[in-house]
Design brief:
The chain has one helix and six strands, in the order αββββββ. It has 72 residues and is α+β, with helices and mostly antiparallel strands. Residues 24-71 form the Lipoprotein YgdI/YgdR-like SH3-like domain.
Length: 72
């Protein structure tokens, strides 16, 4: 019974964690769209957002360049 229960619990935990992850769609004022796997981080000192896009590139956009940040 224990041998069967452990894999089932691990599978359930993995699926639960995957369901909690969400991506973010960042649309700029000039129409560019970025997809980030993590929440963009706002930097008060530079008045900008930083994130990693789906291609693995680090992106930093000023707050004025961003039209919308939407969780998907």
């Amino acid at each position: 019974m224990k041998n069967l229960l452990r894999p089932l619990l691990l599978t359930a935990l993995t699926l639960a964690l995957a369901a909690c992850m969400s991506s973010y769609r960042i649309t700029t004022t000039d129409g560019q769209v970025y997809i980030a796997d993590e929440t963009p981080v706002y930097d008060v000192a530079t008045d900008s957002y930083a994130f990693t896009d789906q291609d693995g590139q680090q992106v930093r956009l000023s707050k004025q360049q961003i039209e919308l940040i939407k969780e998907q």
